[in-house]
């Protein structure tokens, strides 16, 4: 159903675990990935170092498949798989198509040992690097950035893995929050701009890395911190070592992680997602002009902002739309003419709340506008008197080169219609977006964020060949 | 995961559709059942009358399997299955075990024609009837009430199906909201006490019957009414005929449908579920003595009541617990020592909301208390200063004989502990239940409800052999 | 693929096991059924009595599904299921359609206890019995004979199960080789005509009943004998008791079991299948007039007869057709125009053997002639000079009412064409069938067999309502 | 079950198809691979060039999975997939383990275009080549020879794909029969020694390449010839071009293809498999000294040789062992103590044939001897008086480096026991192997074959690093 949806696509989530003593690493990866399922529902995979008790060594075992974490990886819950380190990945496919070849982690052996990578982001100079490597005789079995990175490490003239890795990182542009395995070491890396979030946490027995803190919570880790932009962390039995590989770059975190992608109960970029969203909702309320009876979220992405709006405005908060617990990806409605049915299956008004009311309806953002159009018609049908749509994101007008799948400019409704035009188009009484300056005020360090999909000012210039 | 859960079990949901003209009935049943998925997640099934164009007749086709609606029935979305009537069922198994034999609808042919039944409820004198039929030479392939009812109709000395059905209904005690197919007729029946909900609705082309109105909404039906307790409806191409088969019985609707089972966006018993729950929450607030900083629901069953509580109390409403979108039934955690993990996978605190706060935590009811105990420890871990648990149901102390699976009396925490004892046991600062008189005030016709699981006063005396 | 095949359909196979001491009965049933897989590939099932150690009782557990034995039942190989008795069934569906409702064994409880049946054959007066039971108020959830029999036992006025069973058997006409469970007893029954085979065997620890001896071999049973026509055997911890329930009936065994259905390494009807088939082949050779270079079977059903033909004729035996090991039921070729492809996927000539040769091609029987037509064209294509088709069965002209699925009279090629006409139609140089007197000479007791599908002389008059 | 078997492992089968006009290439690959299923049952895959009608180009689509052809690829039978070329592969895993990473075909893009390979054989200097490539910075995602070859082509300094391919082939040692796709060209290659078979065939509309002619037969191709050792064929819309890349090498075909691997109805190495096997059986008979009553094969691998033996010796040929039609890979018997059960499930004596007889039992070869031991005990149990085991292969004593998975020297029974010792060990009255000179006499060009697993004389020296 979500195929016909009308949200931006989460890209990926990563997790990595190192344990001082042999532990059931695949199980830990399972729980971590389960908490990150919202970041990618099309494939799931892990790679862990299987202990070979006979000779004290290990070898990497990879298992990945199309499907959800619970389907693909539940086999690992049945019995222990002694190991000391592993990484995991959930993915929503973008350019690469929905192919298993592009599923991650990717493991390979090369002249600098065996390595595996799971990666969240998008290398914006990938085409150029690809062309160079290809010219030099590399083969590409997928279109994923991970394969590119492994090639670069193998190709590097540097004498060892570590220096080859540093050299490689120096050539990458764009977004990359990565976890890697190299022999008996877990490595965590975040690009110098810090586009995608990454956290590291510590408990008595394990060290774990994950895209969002909700995954660390699943592992009962309370002591954590952000992996810093441009930081590289080496984690092994001797402890954790930190290095900086790109000093001097200004952070440009993806503001959309806070607006929409991350889970409300996570921290990303040292910000509470829920509280930041509440602040965005409050900011919307500050500029309000419409008179209304109540504030309602489009669940669940509009929940936090609607709460913030309600608190700021003093209007009553209501839950006048329910989100079906079972509306997942289990089947595909055959024809697009059934899009209305798809929305109806997911979201449904509570007639008694909506009837006769002037409603402030809060959601995160507007992409194509198709879902909103249907939703508003359902609300009218349920008797709503006025529907004022408020978005906690500014108008999306430009593509993203840092790992988010935004439709083409033509499909983005804000490129063809003004807010008033949109209101007319989707049947709302009014439509308003959060202004960028207001958005910046909701953040501790408003300057340290990327807003390119709203402004077209790209912090790292995309390079396509 | 839910196996280890700690809620009452929804029993069943039913839907029936009749169309004036041949239509894709299985598809309509699919959408109706999809909306009722929360009433039973273990098996799904439909029975429809397949048109035989050659001779203008039809025959019943049944398809049912263990699994969710989208898995079991999505095959019916691919191509049209011309038909004019059908029924469907979702089920959570109770006594009968999780066996396919007990899945519904059940179709059979007998001396009064071909018939199929889907049933929600529990016949409280089933054992006695069973014994009698068995003595007379009936065989039982399942333990379901539907098989019993079909036997009784076949056995009846009445000359035709209709009079045999009426005779049979007269002998049934307990809860039964049913949809039936008999030849080219759809029949809807509700027991004289009206324990379980049932609605009938009409659009231009179809007449549909369903447990809750949310299923009728999926079929774009806006014109509906309750099937009355003791009412029987015959729906065929000549229209709808209503009869009453047990005049004079006092309605005793299951109050738990409103407290917990039904979807908040449904009407049941001519009440809005969401608004009734808000009223229950408000009623809880009226008797409050604790001082607190904010009100939070245990999502999603506590949502509406928490909103009502907040409005009544004037305390801020917060969403300090998130409910994982992907926590379903896809796998079973191997050991019960992992129960904590199961709760953690489903519910997770927003640390920044909870930290340092005195919290009113609102949920629907308390069964064993195990989930609440873990949940409160998660909230303490996240820094909550005080947690006051409020339940929008009274204390559950007795079994239900009308179709709800309540644990044994020994397992019900309210049979061994007072609210204070429970608070100590689960680590809450206080625990309070809604008082029955308060609960009755939330209902249009408080007297017309069953409260037996709280009081032990059974409106229909259970009869076990 | 076999859907488009052109053989008679095996009907069913049954197995039953009783063990003096608790044993892994489902595993034993698995192995027995695996050996009987050729008797039915569409569904498999078992019912066994699960020991309840707590109170020394047991209850029947049934598991059945559409699919092959190894798919449906391999779950039972993983761990022990302590039990002392059980029955199993493989099925090829006939009239009842390929529906799970008709899968066996069928278990039910009634006034005479709990019972389960697995049945091979066809009750030829089923419609009449059905009508009577229906009139008396029985309901039918399937179209299977097993449900009918259970109803009759339950309905019987006899005071106990055993006498009710005997009474019921007295009313059944047609073919029934059955295994039953009743409480802690395994019962084996064969109809008075002995249409379908049934054997009982004994090892130190178990007593087993099966359609063919190959299933007893799998259980390492060497000491066995035929269950006699009209015999009923009660097997429990006190031993085996035999009774005769229909003295005086003349046996009429299905000659087609020997011609085609049974496995060559089995005994049925106290005859070796392989040796009897060899005798049939030899008998064909006795009446031969064609000159030829070699004898070849259509594998595997023609193997034994071809060997017998070669020995008798003195012509060299060759294997000039291979039968693909992997041609099973795993997929269905979409269009019937692909029937040629289906034959090609299963049978393939060895060009170097066939080229330039005059060939006696031996198969068991001719039904529609479609496969033979394609097969002969493949042989011509491979260079065969002459192809003389010899069938070890007489011409099939009439339907069977005793459990074999024979196409309608119109579809049977021998009803429209003479052997010469068939030869012209399928492209053979000549076609000859085994004469009935010759066939009778191959059997120890030629008079004790049914030949109705060749002659139209039905030993038990079919009765349809 | 076969896991516990005791045969040599077939390695792989390949097929390639080029069509002048767009055709349903995946369907053709399906049928070809279906006929080659006996060459590998663990994974199946295809890669075809999907036509992009918009711009007249195409792109390679790969689909492969663990499982049988009918399971993995039947999806391609449902609707047409217009294409002009594709390749396919079935695989039995050897060193690489049963991992999907090693499944074929393998597709990749590189500086010389897009290419895909499916390969049958084993590169005996792979380790050395691997080491060199790795040193130069190549990464390895699998342990398959196909990945190696693609790397070498990409790495080559030659200016174009074709010359790079030729250069690469010049460096490969060992066995490789390959089909490749490069842009719109299908390429077929056979190593200079011709270890593994490969045929090319032509019909009006398509050109196809396959390991054995039985796959060409499925495609209704009658006009075919061997791809010659050291030949490379370029097939595209302009026709077929042949080149020789390693003139002067002496062919060393794998004699085991004729003894055991290939299907009896195939040609390989311009020899009829069935007739060659018959000759081997006859050769065994020439040196016979034992007196016997009959000759019997171990089906199906002993069939042809047993026939040849019987013809030569004048002894009657009998089918005294049946091979179960359904004994496949569908499940794994849990413990090795059940090996006897596994043999019993696959092979079963016809008691009436065997009893009291002195039997010449013919099979292809003896590896560990475990199966034969059980089999002979089953025959004794069935009453065989004498069992003389005859093998149509010489004694296997050495490993194979050219693509066949032979157990370690220690496990090969002929390394520890003489024929008489083996007879004693497995319970046979005598055991005899075919002598190498006799074997050579059965072949048109006895010198042109490899016999290394019998003699230790390796035609290409294996090189491990
Ligand atoms: N689509 C929906 N949206 C909101 N609430 C729902 C929906 N479907 C069912 N519910 C409500 O959810 C509650 C059950 O969900 P929840 O509390 O999360 O699970 P549990 O059954 O474990 O208590 C019920 O009270 C039901 O009324
Ligand atoms: N467990 C959760 N509880 C609440 N919100 C969640 C949870 N997981 C993800 N989210 C949030 O849900 C939103 C996506 O859900 P929703 O709006 O229902 O779907 P859609 O992706 O169609 O917009 C995101 O904003 C994400 O932050
Ligand atoms: N369709 C077929 N018909 C007859 N023989 C075949 C067929 N396919 C493969 N074979 C042969 O079967 C042999 C393998 O089968 P078999 O001996 O039964 O199994 P195993 O691999 O256990 O020895 C091979 O020699 C092969 O040539
Ligand atoms: N394991 C076996 N070995 C040899 N023959 C068998 C075996 N199992 C069944 N048969 C025989 O195989 C025949 C059916 O196989 P076959 O002729 O290949 O298929 P079809 O059913 O299409 O005619 C029957 O005659 C049966 O007796
Ligand atoms: S362009 Fe938009 S979505 Fe992409 S990183 Fe920047 S803020 Fe995030
Ligand atoms: S006993 Fe409780 S659960 Fe049962 S019907 Fe009455 S109120 Fe509902
Ligand atoms: S009619 Fe033919 S198939 Fe039927 S029982 Fe008689 S001999 Fe057998
Ligand atoms: S060593 Fe043996 S199996 Fe290997 S290629 Fe030579 S003959 Fe064939
Ligand atoms: Mg949303
Ligand atoms: Mg709840
Ligand atoms: Mg046959
Ligand atoms: Mg063999």
From TrEMBL, chains A, B, C, D:
Keywords: 4Fe-4S, Glutamine amidotransferase, Glycosyltransferase, Iron, Iron-sulfur, Magnesium, Metal-binding, Purine biosynthesis, Transferase. Binds 1 Mg(2+) ion per subunit. Binds 1 [4Fe-4S] cluster per subunit. It holds the Pfam family GATase_7. One of its GO terms (biological process) is 'de novo' IMP biosynthetic process. The keyword ATP-binding does not apply. Residues 12-238 form the Glutamine amidotransferase type-2 domain. Pathway: Purine metabolism; IMP biosynthesis via de novo pathway; N(1)-(5-phospho-D-ribosyl)glycinamide from 5-phospho-alpha-D-ribose 1-diphosphate: step 1/2. Mg(2+) binds at residues 301, 363-364. In the C-terminal section; belongs to the purine/pyrimidine phosphoribosyltransferase family. Catalyzes the formation of phosphoribosylamine from phosphoribosylpyrophosphate (PRPP) and glutamine. HAMAP family: PurF (MF_01931). This is Amidophosphoribosyltransferase. It comes from Marispirochaeta aestuarii. The lineage of its organism: Bacteria, Pseudomonadati, Spirochaetota, Spirochaetia, Spirochaetales.
